[in-house]
Specification:
The chain is α+β, with helices and mostly antiparallel strands and 230 residues long. Among the domains are: 55 residues; 100 residues, Nuclear Transport Factor 2, Chain: A (Roll), CATH 3.10.450. The protein is 46% helix and 33% strand. The chain has 6 helices and 9 strands. A 5-stranded antiparallel β-sheet has the order 3-2-1-4-5. It has a 4-stranded antiparallel β-sheet with strand order 6-7-8-9, with helices on both faces. A hairpin with a 2-residue loop joins β8 and β9. α1 runs antiparallel to α3 and α3 packs across α5. The longest helix is centred in the middle third of the chain and has 44 residues. It is rod-shaped, with a radius of gyration of 31 Å. The mean pLDDT is 85.
Length: 230
């Protein structure tokens, strides 16, 4: 469930970032097509948040326009000259040329969104189903032990592995439920950890054999599974 939620969150966040970057790029191209250039003057360094930001005035075809820029450099000073881009139909949206030309953050935002989207898809298509199959194999194994189905237990046990018979015949056989609360997943190995309703906490280590998850070890202590689950 955790991987599924993570996959959905990654896909939604990645999609949102990608769409936002694409929208910003379209808006910038539209602005560039109609924008005009003018020379502006820094008339004030206005304090806001953690720093000071240049307040610029410029002449837009006879109209004096004043705006506070959200871009600053260390050498910006009152009286300094800067280049301004503005839309004649919406002069309030003016921006400094230096700010407009900094496209890296838009591209970076879009690239980050695509990367997050790819990670989410990978988790949803590959990791989440594999994790579900690993957990299901552990549950099936415990169910077979409870039912005394030795054939099924043998089928669900990894080849060449000898399991703790005392644990299987005692706490596992006596249990009716298993509450998984942690685990880990690798390419061909996994751990499913949790508490039997008989009160015993167990670590179930699994291995993929020919595409199917098989139990390789079940124990009340397993350093590898314990560290993976932390």
């Amino acid at each position: 469930m955790g991987l599924t939620i993570g996959a959905v969150a990654a896909v939604l966040c990645g999609l949102g970032m990608t769409v936002a970057a694409a929208y910003s790029g379209v808006q910038r191209r539209r602005f560039r097509r109609v924008a005009r250039r003018a020379e502006g003057t820094i008339v004030e360094m206005a304090k806001a948040g953690s720093g000071e930001w240049p307040v610029v005035t410029f002449d837009a075809e006879g109209k004096v326009v004043r705006f506070r820029s959200n871009f600053r450099r260390s050498d910006h000073r009152v009286g300094g000259r800067v280049q301004v881009l503005y839309d004649p139909a919406h002069v309030d949206g003016a921006t400094m040329v230096e700010n407009f030309e900094l496209r890296g953050y838009v591209a970076g935002f879009g690239a980050g969104g695509l990367a997050l989207l790819g990670i989410g898809i990978f988790m949803a298509v590959y990791l989440a189903p594999m994790n579900a199959a690993c957990n299901r194999a552990a549950e099936d194994f415990l169910g077979a032990v409870r039912a005394g189905d030795t054939a099924a237990v043998g089928e669900l046990t990894a080849p060449g592995e000898r399991l703790d018979e005392a644990l299987l015949r005692g706490p596992v056989r006596a249990s009716r439920d298993f509450d998984s609360d942690s685990g880990s997943l690798g390419i061909d190995t996994g751990c499913v950890n949790g508490k039997l309703d008989s009160g015993t906490y167990v670590y179930i280590r699994l291995r993929r054999v020919e595409g199917a998850w098989k139990v390789a070890r079940i124990a009340t202590a397993d350093p590898d599974c314990e560290s993976d689950g932390d």
